[in-house]
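Task card 7
Instruction: Convert sequence to structure tokens.
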Amino acid sequence: YFFCKTFVKMLLCFILMFLLPFGQATLPLVINTWPFEHATAAAWSALQAGGSVLDAVEKGCARCEADQCDGSVGFGGSPDERGETTLDAMIMNGNTMEVGAVGDLRRIKNAIGVARAVMERTDHTLLVGESASVFAENMGFTAEDLTTNKSISIFTQWLKDNCQPNYRKNVSPDPSQYCGPYKPGATLRQRRKRQIDIHAHDTIGMIVIGKDGQVAAGTSTNGANHKVPGRVGDSPIAGAGSYADSTAGGAAATGDGDVMMRFLPSYLAVELMKTGTDPSTACKTSISRIKIHYPGFFGAVICANTTGHYGAACNKVPGFSKFTFVVYNSQSNSPLLQSVDCF
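Output:
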């Protein structure tokens, strides 16, 4: 009898191991894109100090902005066609469904902080460009030069390469000026194909779920290298860059924002979790929807539900077959690197 009873318990445990979603459930939870462990730790510390989930998202993303995570977040990276670094960010409160976001932000290093100010100090959702920068200065944020020696070097080399690669299509430059001005017409030369750079990670996307299931999410990025001035990607768009709903969970995306934002992958993933879909499957379904139209796109999504389960998915393309993200919960006791095979 004892043997049978023990065997049944072991069998049940074995079955549960395979039925549970990617991450084991425990709250509170911090999860973010890419191996940005210092950002994860900063968010967790904010929670442990008694901060809210919004505080944790803001602190985590701000740490990445200050650290210039892989050159793809914060100042001094991804200069546009004029050599200027501009920032995009958003933050979302899953309890109230409020969102604050900024796009094409200039002169202000703490983009996620400005996004939160938009949410808490205005009735608006998104401010962009010079007006967003003026708003930030009015709110007490310090105006600083976002250019660094590194961003100047990136821009200078791009000019030497005849402004290749770039994001222009179906236009031709002045024949004497390879870098424009551009006018409608047949391209005079084949654009050099942009190669996927796994070290240009585009975005930190972060989800924080409190001990009682409250959810917040946020993103921060300096966008795409050599983007057309004024370009805003997916990161500050609610439902694209990230999304939070305390009745279901949160999601955040990273990758080719110009493609991904067309499908609102974060919103889709959260809506799927609301119907009971586990996070890993929700992420994979979200990626699959994009693949139907853009099979070669570069991107990934992280998901977490209000029980503390989490997962991720990514599109497999040459040079990108595995996606790394970071998790911090009471079981890990430190930022824990996790990875998922792309499909």
